[in-house]
């Protein structure tokens, strides 16, 4: 039978179909570039800038998960990184490629679902995620942490920004069980420091804090409704 489950991946795919936004959702989301979405502006995350400024991470090879229109990928490429940037949305990648061309940087943009990528073990110095993780369903967290651990070199870094619990932008305060009772991620799940430390307990926590609010004059993106975290393998 077509809907018979024979393995773990088929189970995950079935659960995905009930909870995750379809690929078409994200393609349409990025089609209108004039929408008043804060992260549509071509500005890097303030926490990412701080990691580089402080020397916490130094140029190497980076994988960005859910790169959107490419603002962080472009910043990293400008600062000497070899960048692989993946997103499920065709329209976001088209926009990102245009921006990269205008910026004169070379980035390897990848159109794929992060859980379907082929990644060589220990191939990245940094894995960066700005806004992808809070759209990951609870049953996919193990797949996500396995992906991070596989991608990173020993001594490599994982950094992310994600919704704070109960934030104004999103960050649903619901239990994992309630996600499945309601068949919804409620626009994106929220996290606090304790949860992030537990989820990524295989890694060493370097810094976990709220993002700092930024305005355009500072040439960085920052909203205190988001958590910023840096971990080391």
TrEMBL record:
InterPro entries (alphabetical): Methyltransf_25 (IPR041698), SAM-dependent_MTases_sf (IPR029063)
Membrane among keywords: no
SUPFAM superfamilies in UniProt: S-adenosyl-L-methionine-dependent methyltransferases
Gene Ontology molecular function: methyltransferase activity
Protein's UniProt keywords contain Methyltransferase: yes
Record Gene3D superfamilies: Vaccinia Virus protein VP39
Keywords for the protein's UniProt record, in alphabetical order: Methyltransferase, S-adenosyl-L-methionine, Transferase
CDD domains named in the record: AdoMet_MTases
Chain ranges of the Methyltransferase domain: 62-156
Protein name, entry field: Class I SAM-dependent methyltransferase
Organism, as annotated: Rossellomorea oryzaecorticis
